[in-house]
């Protein structure tokens, strides 16, 4: 990687701070689920893109930072020059969901961490915010000018994509663009996976997923919601129904949360159940989540240190909790949550307790009453303390649940198949059946899931084209 002093932005004054992003004031945030970060206007995006050094030859942000290898320096250049629509088209070629990634990518662990402008004295370029601006621009432009991509289905082969989270969406779109007929199946009535039911609307408005859904249907996608693949239909059924290939993108198996005494009490919930109930209208949920929503109460304890934990804590405040405390087993510097998520949570009133683990949940009448915690004391002490709790949300991530193995045998999908998955290529032991390469261990981020879905689409297309895949 080198700086190109001839045509880069390496000369002249460059502000060391990012162009600030507008945010809703805290009081307004807590009164609704409106999006908190309001994004850049064109002038902001141009000014911020102009901070980019336009590194030539393998810019670190795109090679080491972005799992999609998005040509960041190229679209930064165009954006800085005001050629924002061209920049947007380029960003979109690499990423089917730039508007989503610009909002949810933990950029301080990905592209912005790799940006060489980032140092003690200077902030990295706000790559995520610019990508979000470009993604929104393109969608608005298409909607205003009726420039939706027309259906290109011309192949006779049909592909079933099982699971329509970011991996399935990316795979389905890539196959549709290659001309295959694609049907997406999902247990939930709507597409989006964790984007729709795990990431709250104040971070990712549902309207962005609705417009992606419309875009894919326009491209020719058929969608069959409320279908539990493996039960009805089985993968065997899908092959019998005439699908030439099946791509499994059902997300990660649930993280194995540590056994805490009392975890089965009323009032103790998992992050996905809690967020699914809080964020998604009842009619858009699968039957098992259609029961009346649980009473939240005043005191909410969230256990975990990931983005999921921040999402839960901030959601609880919006649902009216009086006090929300996030308990994390490590030091603040070890949290997986993006720094900006932690800042927003604190601003909104979330309290943090570090280096503590839950020992047991105490109850009254079968409902959780308090959490007993042990302080992790490197000196060997065993101090315990209690926090009152009307609701406890278990938001330990896959990373927190250490020891969850990357299983090579995935047998949950169909009782008639014991699918061996090659985690590198995504091929399985059954011809024509492929699994998201991350199916066993789970994608840690949305952008990694998109990358896995795109890789899967290439493998499926090569199989259907009769091309050997390595
Ligand atoms: C609460 C929470 C918050 C998160 N926040 C962020 C964030 O801010 N940024 C970030 O980058 N990442 C975040 N993540 C991680 C991110 O959501 C995942 O990495 C990503 O969604 C994985 O995508 P996927 O398509 O592999 O799986 P999923 O998004 O889980 O999608 C899988 C889909 O398969 C469906 N499915 C499952 N089983 C079946 C079946 N048997 N039949 C039919 N359909 C089935 C599911 O209903 C779902 O729609 C978060 C995760 C959680 C849990
Ligand atoms: S997709 Fe995510 S990691 Fe890649 S450039 Fe965009 S914000 Fe950064």
UniProtKB/TrEMBL annotation:
<feature type="domain" description="FAD/NAD(P)-binding">
    <location>
        <begin position="158"/>
        <end position="453"/>
    </location>
</feature>
<dbReference type="GO" id="GO:0051536">
    <property type="term" value="F:iron-sulfur cluster binding"/>
</dbReference>
<dbReference type="InterPro" id="IPR028261">
    <property type="entry name" value="DPD_II"/>
</dbReference>
<feature type="domain" description="Dihydroprymidine dehydrogenase">
    <location>
        <begin position="30"/>
        <end position="138"/>
    </location>
</feature>
<dbReference type="InterPro" id="IPR009051">
    <property type="entry name" value="Helical_ferredxn"/>
</dbReference>
<dbReference type="GO" id="GO:0016491">
    <property type="term" value="F:oxidoreductase activity"/>
</dbReference>
<dbReference type="Pfam" id="PF14691">
    <property type="entry name" value="Fer4_20"/>
</dbReference>
<dbReference type="Pfam" id="PF07992">
    <property type="entry name" value="Pyr_redox_2"/>
</dbReference>
<dbReference type="InterPro" id="IPR036188">
    <property type="entry name" value="FAD/NAD-bd_sf"/>
</dbReference>
<protein>
    <submittedName>
        <fullName>FAD-dependent oxidoreductase</fullName>
    </submittedName>
</protein>
<dbReference type="InterPro" id="IPR023753">
    <property type="entry name" value="FAD/NAD-binding_dom"/>
</dbReference>
């Amino acid at each position: 990687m080198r700086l190109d002093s001839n045509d880069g932005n390496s000369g002249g004054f460059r502000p060391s701070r990012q162009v600030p992003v507008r945010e809703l004031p805290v009081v307004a945030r807590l009164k609704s689920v409106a999006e908190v970060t309001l994004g850049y206007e064109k002038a902001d995006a141009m000014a911020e893109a102009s901070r980019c050094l336009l590194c030539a030859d393998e810019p670190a942000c795109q090679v080491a930072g972005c799992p999609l290898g998005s040509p960041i320096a190229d679209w930064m250049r165009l954006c800085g020059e005001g050629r924002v629509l061209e920049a947007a088209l380029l960003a979109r070629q690499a990423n089917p969901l730039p508007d989503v990634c610009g909002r949810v990518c933990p950029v301080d662990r990905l592209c912005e961490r790799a940006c060489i402008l980032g140092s003690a004295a200077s902030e990295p370029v706000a790559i995520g915010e610019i990508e979000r601006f470009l993604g929104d621009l393109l969608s608005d432009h298409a909607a205003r000018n009726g420039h939706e991509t027309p259906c290109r289905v011309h192949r006779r082969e049909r592909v079933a994509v099982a699971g329509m989270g970011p991996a399935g969406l990316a795979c389905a779109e890539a196959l549709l663009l290659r001309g295959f007929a694609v049907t997406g199946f999902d247990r939930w009535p709507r597409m989006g996976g964790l984007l729709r039911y795990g990431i709250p609307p104040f971070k990712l408005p549902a309207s962005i997923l609705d417009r992606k859904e419309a875009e894919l249907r326009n491209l020719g996608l058929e969608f069959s919601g409320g279908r539990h693949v493996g039960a009805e239909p089985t993968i065997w059924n899908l092959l019998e129904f005439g699908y030439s290939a099946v791509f499994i993108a059902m997300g990660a198996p649930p993280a194995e949360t540590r056994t805490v005494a009392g975890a089965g009490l009323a009032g103790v919930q998992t992050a996905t159940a809690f967020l699914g109930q809080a964020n998604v209208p009842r009619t858009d949920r699968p039957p098992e989540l259609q029961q009346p929503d649980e009473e939240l109460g005043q005191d909410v304890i969230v256990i975990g240190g990931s983005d999921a934990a921040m999402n839960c804590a901030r959601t609880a405040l919006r649902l009216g909790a009086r006090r929300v405390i996030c308990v994390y087993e490590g030091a603040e510097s070890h949290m997986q949550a993006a720094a900006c998520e932690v800042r927003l949570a604190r601003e909104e009133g979330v309290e943090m307790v570090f280096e503590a683990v839950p020992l047991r949940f105490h109850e009254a009448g079968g409902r959780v009453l308090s959490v007993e915690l042990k302080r992790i004391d490197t000196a060997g002490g065993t101090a315990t303390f209690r926090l009152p709790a009307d609701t406890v949300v278990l938001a330990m991530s896959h990373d927190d649940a250490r020891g969850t193995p990357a299983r090579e045998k995935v047998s949950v999908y169909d009782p008639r198949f014991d699918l061996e998955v090659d985690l590198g290529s995504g091929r399985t032991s059954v011809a024509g059946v492929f699994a998201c390469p991350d199916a066993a261990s789970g994608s840690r981020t949305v952008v990694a899931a998109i990358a896995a879905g795109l890789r899967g689409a290439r493998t499926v297309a090569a199989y259907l084209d009769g091309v050997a895949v390595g």
